[in-house]
Design a protein that fits this description.
With 163 residues, this protein is mainly α. Helix content is 75%, strand content 0%. The protein is globular, with a radius of gyration of 17 Å. The relative contact order is 0.11.
Length: 163
């Protein structure tokens, strides 16, 4: 695993801040929305993290991390357009919620992968992306993502039914 560059450290620290902000926002508001201050902060930090990921090339060419950055940018843009213009009317919020929540998944996948491939220093937990431990974490995060989106949809439906 190559050593961390200054850009890599910036990207990593901002990624940790983004995950913390997402957790705060989800606990506070149950969904991520650009309309809330913490949601805006999370989405702005997410844009910075995804943008910086596109500039990191110390592991070869355009790789999985770059594709996750593109997916993240696409999810932020999609979520924002769904929130701002509501092209599907009252149903737009459900896709917006899924899009913004997907950005959290896209933060977690490289975060755990990098953690397992870098630590402990000198003898990391795993040495490849194909390691069963890495794949188990990815599968677990996918399961948490699906369950959390379904829970958010249920809460949104419950909130709109009570209005």
């Amino acid at each position: 695993m190559p050593s961390m560059t200054l850009l890599g450290w910036f990207h990593t620290v901002m990624g940790v801040v983004a995950i913390g902000t997402a957790i705060f926002t989800l606990r506070q508001h149950r969904v991520i929305k650009f309309a809330t201050m913490s949601g805006r902060l999370y989405l702005l930090i997410t844009l910075v993290v995804a943008g910086s990921a596109l500039a990191i090339y110390n592991q070869g060419g355009f790789g999985v991390g770059h594709w996750l950055a593109v997916l993240t940018l696409s999810a932020v843009l999609s979520g924002y357009l769904l929130e701002a213009y509501q092209p599907l009317g009252s149903r737009s919020i459900y896709l917006q919620t899924a899009a913004y929540s997907a950005t959290v998944l896209f933060h977690m996948v490289p975060a755990i992968t990098d953690f397992l491939r870098r630590l402990p220093v000198g003898d990391p937990f795993v040495d490849s992306l194909e390691d069963p431990l890495v794949q188990s974490f990815h599968l677990a995060f996918l399961g948490v993502f699906v369950c959390s989106v379904l829970l958010q949809w249920w809460l949104l439906r419950k909130m709109t039914a009570s209005e």
